[in-house]
């Protein structure tokens, strides 16, 4: 592989410089979660199961090590999850609009099967290209631009620190696949449970290391 000016040199071992760790937490369950419904920009609260999951995350928070900050999507289900963790850690929560879930447009609240029956051709096109958006919604390409912009802002604000990032399935999958230098199609090969934890370490030379994916040992 050719190393260009925008691509850091590949190495087997992390550099000795301090790393910035993002602990990526998917929010707890809502009413949409067990029914596998498209859940984008809605303001559904955590369900009773989701509240229990958030409490389990808070109970696990001591295993995160030293946490310097907690950031969250502005949507209710993520803020509730983040605030539960924050209470256990004694930290405030900052919100970033760019961490919001993908906008599913007219598919919001539908199951995959319902969307296929309603908009079969549009669904096939969406699955076939990251540049295609759901009707009235947002493409994965647009999502990736804003999520990476948010990642850069968090890394700049918290160099050398550990940050809990409470977000949604699509933004977290995006951060994982970009860190792995994987194609957009890999989004469909990553599964993330509600209230799961994934970890990425970022280094000042531009390299990063995926340390954990979809850990639910606290549940």
How far apart, in Å, are the first and last alpha carbons? 41 Å
Question: Which structural class should the secondary elements be placed in?
Answer: alpha/beta
Helix content: 25-40%
Radius of gyration: 17 Å
What kind of sheet is the major sheet? 6 strands, mixed
Broad shape: globular
Runs with pLDDT <50, length 5+?
A: 1-5
Total helices: the number is 6
Instruction: Report the β-strand fraction as a percent range.
Output: 15-25%
Q: Element order, helices and strands?
A: EHEHEHHHEHEE
Oligomer: single chain
Would you tell me the overall average pLDDT?
93
Task: State the gist of this model.
Helix 2 (76-89) links the parallel strand 2 (69-72) and strand 3.
Looking at this protein, list some descriptive labels.
219 residues, alpha/beta, 6-stranded mixed β-sheet, 6 helices, 6 strands, 33% helix, 16% strand, globular, disordered N terminus
Descriptive overview:
The chain contains six helices and six strands. With 219 residues, the chain is an alpha/beta fold. A six-stranded mixed sheet has the order 3-2-4-1-5-6. Helix 1 (48-60) runs parallel beside helix 2, helix 3 (112-118) packs across helix 4 and helix 5 (140-157) crosses helix 6. The longest helix has 18 residues, at 140-157.
């Amino acid at each position: 592989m050719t190393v260009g000016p925008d691509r850091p040199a590949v190495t087997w071992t992390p550099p000795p410089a301090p790393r910035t760790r993002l602990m990526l937490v998917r929010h707890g369950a809502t009413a949409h979660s067990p029914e596998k419904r498209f859940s984008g920009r809605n303001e559904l609260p955590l369900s009773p199961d989701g509240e229990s999951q958030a409490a389990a995350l808070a109970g696990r928070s001591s295993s995160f090590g030293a946490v310097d900050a907690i950031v969250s999507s502005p949507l209710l289900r993520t803020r509730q999850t983040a605030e539960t963790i924050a209470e256990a850690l004694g930290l405030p929560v900052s919100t970033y609009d760019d961490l919001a879930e993908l906008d599913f447009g007219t598919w919001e609240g539908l199951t995959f099967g319902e969307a296929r029956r309603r908009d079969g051709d549009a669904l096939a096109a969406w699955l076939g290209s990251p540049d295609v958006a759901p009707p009235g919604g947002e493409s994965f390409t647009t999502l990736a631009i804003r999520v990476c912009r948010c990642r850069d802002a968090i890394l700049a604000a918290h160099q050398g620190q550990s940050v809990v990032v409470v977000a949604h399935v699509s933004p977290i999958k995006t951060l994982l696949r970009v860190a792995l230098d994987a194609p957009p199609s890999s989004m469909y090969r990553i599964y993330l449970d509600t209230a799961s934890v994934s970890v990425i370490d970022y280094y000042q030379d531009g390299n990063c290391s995926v340390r954990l994916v979809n850990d639910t040992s606290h549940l």
